[in-house]
Queue: 3 jobs
Job 1
Amino acid sequence: MDFREFERLSPNTGGGANDGLGVLFHHSGLSFDETIRRMQDPASRVSYHCLVDADGTRCTMVPDAQIAWHAGVSSFRGRERCNEFLLGVSFAGDTYAAPLTEAQIASAIEWLGARWSPRGWAIDRLSDHRQVAPGRKRDLNPAEWDRLLGAVAARFGGAPADGLVSMLKSAPAGSTKNPPRPP
């Protein structure tokens, strides 16, 4: 499908390089245009690598090689500071107020496709914000996370081990369960 993609670089980036070991998914809670404006405001101190609109349009805000400020205090697979090693992808809107559109999911799959094999990613390198910051963040809606993860598995295969599937799909807010650290 080739979804439209454009760039609006955010000033909200950190020093150093992002290790690009996987992807952390979010929802912005705002419309596409409102999110772009917020990410371009230095006072917001927040950014994503990529924002996906309801029609599948993508906006690149921070190049993959740089650190975006999307995770805050966070931990994934035993490693803290997810901004340093996970790329931040956000869906415009609130996944509790409205489900992800088919175009958003397809666009995210397209975005992942350009990175999946070259980076050696597997499905266990994906998370959402509520899982890396339990009790502090609630995005994505678990039902929408399940839909997204199912679409990723259908496209790229390689379903994670049973224990990890359980953790990814159903870890309650506040859970401190962490899978093994990435190599």
Job 2
Amino acid sequence: MRVSTIMLVATVASSLVYAVAAAVPPVRVPTQRAPVLVQARVPDTSNSTSPDYGNASKFVPFPSTAQFETADSWIADGKRYRLYGFQACLRGTSVTIAPGVKRDCGKLNLIMAQAIVRDSKPVCTTIRELDANNLLVVCQTTTGKTGYDLATYMIAQGWGFAAVGPSGQLAVPGYRVVEQGAREAREGLWAYVDLPHPVSILVGQSKHQSSNSAVGER
């Protein structure tokens, strides 16, 4: 199933997806495609772990001074921003891009995120302040009068993953649908058979830490 065949209704932050990325050899890069419609349920704001969409009305241009830390987080004006519901590949993990040639998955993902943001010129809005210096945001690009969700696009092109919360629940369930489409089409990072899925790694680390904590309390 190709990503371009995914045509589902979007409801996350009133946004959909559209972007164009620049070529970064030697990896495959996304080409211009028609907007992708995706099912993405807005989180239940009654849950304390979900962000408040009540203030998500003011979108501002992506900061030109932003310094990316990872493909899902950047620093601008002394604050750290995190793209909600989006999980990047982890630095320190690697993928084999050619026989005998490995690259850091997190760094490769970061390069592509920078290219996509540069070319798609997204606007973002804060949906939750974790503290004075750390904020969760959603971003979108615009075609005509229609907004397209940036995280959805990146995941659909294989340059990101559906994030999960501390409890293991998906932050945006619809992102997993998009991720599965990218996986089946072997888009982006999914083209590499040894792709280290970041969510699996993080969940495994969390379980290991919980297990150690339980042993230590005995």
Job 3
Amino acid sequence: MTPTPESVPLQPAPAGEVAISAVDAKQRIVDTAYELFARRGIRDVGVNELISRAGVAKATFYRHFASKEELVLAFLEQRDQMWTVQLIVGDARRRGGTPEEQLLAIFDVFGDWFRRDDFEACSFINILLEMGAQHPLGRASIDYLARIRGHVQQLAEEAGLRDTEDFSRSWHILMKGSIISATEGDTEAAKRAQAMARTLIEQFRA
């Protein structure tokens, strides 16, 4: 009789590794990387620390990620989903009743984020500055920043604004600038950016 998954005994985990499934092990590594990379950047976090904090064996780590760079790319993908799509765009769409209100609500979301004790700024900007625009991770960060502009452009199109690509680039400058200002300690940066954003919308009305 072919044994079922339930009937197969778990094999002992390698020394230092918690007995978890392959899928769970990979997600644990990504979740650990998310926490560390978001707070401390890339260069400051070593593979040995990632392995220790994730509670997996070195062989398990390299079975899922051939290199630290590959793990950073997985982190950026998760950051895009959790931060850009769910936190920023998703929350802004829930807060605003119209596309224009949803655009402006981005800065309301930012305002709450800037006041959090765990505010960690924008990982895409951080990695771009840390690694440089010519590095593969820098280029990946640029691509994810472009995705953010794409979300803004979509809202601008829904709002009936003109020249939505130019609008989204200008809007993104306000977003990125407010994040940098908040990193400097200006907790009102989102409110200041939102005031300028209202003027920008007026300039781009069809």
